[in-house]
Amino acid sequence: MKRSGIDEFTLLCERCGYVIEGLDRSGACPECGKPIEESLPERRVGSEWQQSSTAISWLRTTIHLLARPLWMLDRLAIERRRTQSLWWTNVIVAGVLVGVGCAITVWIWGARFAMGPEPAAGFDPLGLFVHLLLLAPPAAASAVLIIGGLNAIEERGLRLLASRRRWRLTPVAAHAVVAHGAAGWVMAAVFIAVCIPLATYRAEIRWYPFVALGRTLHPPIILAAGVLGMIGGFLFFETFAWLGLRRLKYANRVRPDAPSLPPVSEARTPA
């Protein structure tokens, strides 16, 4: 069949893009020989988050994304509602972590200048609360805007690359790739929230949570770990986006009148 007049619901071979709409689903693609049943959208059971949007499923999805990205790409469901919620969840979590890390860093610097070279004798919860209240929200909002903008640019870039190669990467598929790949931003934000405050004062304040670690490691080592973590998160995001472009270039989407995703209990997850 010719690949003309296709839309985002037209059934294509997910390997070569040949139109397999209307062919016997027990057969194989006439173009490349891939079994047609392996290109059916129903086989994409979705990530844990797409099956059930809970805190535990978000954590499991993030772990599986970082540990088994190709396996996750092969099971991603091409749907918008829960993908959109994951997009915002990852962006907001990363933004909040960055905002909290920035507020704690400023608080530690302020405490150090106020106390001089001697370590603090006690914990100042009011100062911490004020810094979190005044500095964390604007810093988090700025981070959310920046990360969200980068996600939007990445989606447009993926679709542009796909169109130049005459691939059918639908807007929903590109959105699913970026939403799940945003776990890289969360990873980078974790390193920002932990390493930068820790390196700022090296835990010389007695009540700081990482006293033993801070006295063992030097600030340059801690800061280097944070920078490497941030770079690693960015590289994961970009690598996952590229792999998603290659793996989902002809991904099929369930038609609106088709059955919904199976519950988590029916999905196969790694042990």
Summarize it.
Helices cover 61% and strands 0% of the residues.
SSE ordering: HHHHHHHHH
What are the low-pLDDT stretches, counting only 5+ consecutive residues below 50?
A: 203-214, 261-271
Task: Tell me the number of structural domains.
Answer: 1
User: In terms of structural class, how would the helical and strand content be classed?
Assistant: mainly alpha
**Which overall shape is indicated by the principal axes computed on the Cα atoms?**
elongated
How many beta-strand elements? 0
Give the integer mean of the pLDDT values.
84
- Secondary structure: helix percent: 55-70%
Radius of gyration: 23 Å
Number of helices: 9
Determine the strand fraction and express it as a percent band: under 5%
**Could you give the distance between the termini?**
41 Å
What can be said about the biggest beta sheet? none
Q: Tags for this entry?
A:
single chain; 271 residues; mainly alpha
Please characterize this protein's 3D structure:
The chain is mostly helical and 271 residues long. It has one domain (54-249). The model is unreliable at 203-214 and 261-271 (pLDDT under 50). Helix 2 packs across helix 3 and helix 4 crosses helix 5. The chain has helices at residues 48-51, 55-67, 69-75, 81-115, 125-164, 171-181, 183-201, 211-216, 219-247. The longest helix has 40 residues, at 125-164.
Q: Secondary-structure map with pairings?
A:
Elements lengths: L47 H4 L3 H13 L1 H7 L5 H35 L9 H40 L6 H11 L1 H19 L9 H6 L2 H29 L24
